[in-house]
Write a structure and sequence with these properties.
By secondary structure, the protein is mainly alpha-helical. Helix content is 69%, strand content 0%. α5 packs parallel to α10. The longest helix is centred in the middle third of the chain and has 36 residues.
């Protein structure tokens, strides 16, 4: 089994994980804004996400020979009857996070990429890190950890304020320009829509030119994006967007503790002498359950769509190659991002693994630079956005400063990681 024991290598893996996990949501959001059905996108994403998990588990979890207390990947798979309690925790974590990822795809449309990821990550720290603090025997420095948790909590409220303020800005734009059309959700993050290469190939130049003429952040462009996108958000309630965001955040807080229990067995569910699940094995079970949930729900959504999305069929999905490569790439980025996080956590521990919570900084970069989020918004919205990001940076720094050291209870304790997304 491959073990990363060099701190420099671990930091490099964590930085790579931070970039990958902050980038894949932007690709799914891009496809939704181009009009691709979210059911089609998520089905493609889930396939390559599982593929990445299998590649990592087999390539790194099977490397070398098994050692006492640290079995290789295939060896531990054959011992499922012995470590079944831990497998159940890993499967539960995958189901919870799979549901959270699915809801997040709709939350990005209703609340925006930046606000959604900041609130979800902050909730993960506020609840998940607090639970893990007690599960891990209070190894972190509480006098530093909990002020950091408070900073994340403040970032949650600032994120909700940004969402509300930006929605009000869009309402004002549309009320002045479109005569009576109201917007009750934050859709200014669709301000800059990338041109679809497929449309240029089919010669739909007139529509393409029209989309270029609308300036980012204007009422005209908001209406144009609404006409093209697959998830319709005009006229929806502000509470709907925030409700989706907080539900996705709740899922991400609970699965973290489940994975912690799967790899460290704090509740002593395993029989004496049975090795704990190593990270690669837990990652595999987690990914399989997440894939199964996402695949089944999205096949159902093909015929029973939600959020005003058009219905589809399996055959229509199979024929839809428009943007499929981006969805497949997103799945690979998320899968390898998770894997790199686990590998870096082997050497850097929980503090470094929690640094991946800074992934909304990458998502915000894509949202502001690539998609033109908050373009032509009010000064109040800009002030709230700056405050939210600043508080988030402070919170991540404080969290890293609270790092402790896990006392290994068995040979594979050093493989544990608390955060997978």
């Amino acid at each position: 089994m491959l073990v990363v024991d060099d701190r420099g290598g671990a930091v490099a893996l964590m930085l790579a994980s931070l970039f990958l996990l902050g980038t894949w949501p932007a690709l799914l959001t891009l496809l939704e804004r181009r009009g691709r059905l979210p059911q089609h996108t998520y089905l493609d994403y889930s396939v390559t996400n599982l593929l990445a998990a299998v590649v990592i588990a087999v390539a790194f979890g099977q490397a070398g020979e098994s050692r006492p207390g640290v079995p290789n990947f295939f060896t531990q798979l054959s011992q499922i009857q012995d470590n079944w309690p831990s497998v159940q925790f890993a499967v539960a974590g995958g189901l919870i996070l799979g549901l959270g990822c699915l809801v997040s795809q709709y939350a990005w449309a209703y609340a925006g990429l930046s606000v959604t990821n900041v609130i979800c990550s902050s909730m993960t720290v506020v609840v998940g890190t607090t639970i893990n603090y007690f599960l891990d025997g209070r190894i972190n420095r509480a006098e530093i950890l909990f002020p950091g948790v408070v900073c994340f909590l403040v970032a949650v409220f600032l994120g909700a304020a940004v969402h509300s303020s930006n929605a009000k800005d869009d309402e004002d734009k549309l009320s002045m320009k479109c005569g009576g059309i109201e917007l009750s959700s934050d859709v200014s993050d669709k301000a800059k829509l990338l041109p679809d290469p497929e449309e240029q190939k089919t010669g739909n130049q007139e529509d393409h030119n029209t989309s270029i003429q609308a300036k980012p952040g204007t009422a005209e462009f908001i209406v144009q994006v609404e006409e093209r996108r697959s998830i319709k958000v005009l006229g929806s309630s502000k509470l709907l967007g925030l409700g989706l965001v907080f539900f996705a955040g709740a899922c991400s807080t609970l699965f973290s503790a489940a994975i912690n229990l799967a790899t460290n067995d704090q509740w002593h569910a395993l029989r004496k002498g049975v090795p704990h699940l190593v990270v690669y094995t837990a990652f595999f079970y987690f990914s399989v359950s997440s894939f199964a949930l996402g695949f089944c729900l999205n096949v159902w959504f093909l015929y029973q769509p939600k959020a005003g999305v058009p219905a589809s069929t399996i055959s229509a999905y199979a024929r839809d190659w428009n943007g499929r490569h981006w969805a497949l790439l997103a799945g690979l980025l998320c899968g390898f991002g998770n894997g790199f996080q686990f590998m870096g956590g082997q050497a850097a521990g929980y503090a470094a693994a929690d640094a991946v919570q800074a992934l909304p900084l990458v998502s915000t970069f894509w949202g502001v630079i690539l998609f033109g989020e908050y373009r032509r918004s009010s000064r109040r919205t800009y002030q709230l956005l700056a405050s939210m990001l600043s508080m988030f940076v402070v919170a991540v720094a404080v969290l890293m400063a609270s790092a402790g050291h896990r006392k290994a209870s068995n040979g594979n304790a050093k493989f544990s990681v608390t955060r997978f997304w």
